[in-house]
Amino acid sequence: MPVKKKSDEKRAYQIKVTLRDIRPPIWRRMLVPCDIRLDNLHRVLQVVMGWTDSHLHEFIIDGVSYGDPSLDVDMGDDVENEKRFNLHKVVPGEKSKFHYLYDFGDSWEHEILVEKILPIEKGTRYPVCLAGKRACPPEDCGGAPGYENLLEALKDPSHPEHEEMFEWLPGDFDSEKFDIKSINVELGGSPR
User: Fold this and answer.
1) DSSP SS3 for 62
2) Which of 75, 126, 131, 160 has the fewest Cβ atoms within 10 Å of its own Cβ atom?
3) C-beta atoms surrounding 140 within 10 Å
4) Is residue 23 classed exposed, middle or buried when 0-12, 13-18 and 19+ CB atoms within 10 A define those classes?
5) How many CB atoms lie within 10 A of CB 138?
6) How many domains does the chain have?
């Protein structure tokens, strides 16, 4: 029977995702299998961040764009098909950083840091969200500047857009809320 080398073991990437240009930060920490395909990582990011997958996206890794070229003819030959690439093949090590852009209009840029590479734990279902802070901004609010304006309008009853913003938002929106249990239920990962 061949001896299993450490490099043959299934590994998990502990990654931290931070939404750029938002203060205080909106972030998530999660574990994903190291061999997750980029298209599946996109779906995981949509769930953990709270997006609705209503817009185009791309990963930018070492200056190379990865996405779904079938969704946008403008992307064409300039983007690699994300379905053909596994995370550990394009982001091989700890402390590696790359970017995920969601919604080319609002330009939600996420910085992703590989914090650790760990052995897969028996009994743990992956992906799994470990921690996070604050709610995801609502879709189509105008990017980071629009979100800042939205939060200002919500805080100030005398703001000219105060009532309009309350009517536009879902009734349960709370910018500080982070519900790890519902995220992990949606991911199908191990509860934390």
Assistant:
1) coil
2) 160
3) 14
4) exposed
5) 19
6) 1
- The token pair that represents 145 in the structure block: 């500047």
Q: Determine the pLDDT at residue 192.
A: 46
Is the pTM for the entire model greater than 0.85?
A: yes
8-state DSSP, 37: B
Q: What is the distance between the alpha carbons of residues 130 and 44, in angstroms, rounded to a whole number? A: 13
Sequence-ordered list of residues with C-beta below 8 angstroms from that of 5, at least 6 positions apart, any chain: none
Instruction: Give the H or E element holding residue 19.
Output: strand 11-19
Does residue 126 belong to any structural domain of this protein? yes
Asked whether 33 and 89 are in contact (CB, 8 A), the reply is no
The CATH number of whichever domain residue 123 belongs to comes to 3.10.290.30
Is 71 part of a structural domain of the chain? yes
- The burial of 41, by beta-carbon neighbours within 10 Å (0-12 exposed, 13-18 middle, 19 or more buried), is given as buried
The β-bridge partners of 111 are: 18, 99
Q: Phi and psi (nearest 5°) for 191?
A: -65, 145
User: For residue 145, is it within any domain?
Assistant: no
pLDDT per residue of the chain (192 residues) written in tens, 0 to 9: 544 445 546 899 999 999 999 999 999 999 999 999 999 999 999 999 999 999 999 999 999 999 998 876 555 568 999 999 999 999 989 999 999 999 999 999 999 999 999 999 888 899 999 999 999 999 999 999 999 988 988 888 888 887 888 788 877 788 999 999 999 999 986 554
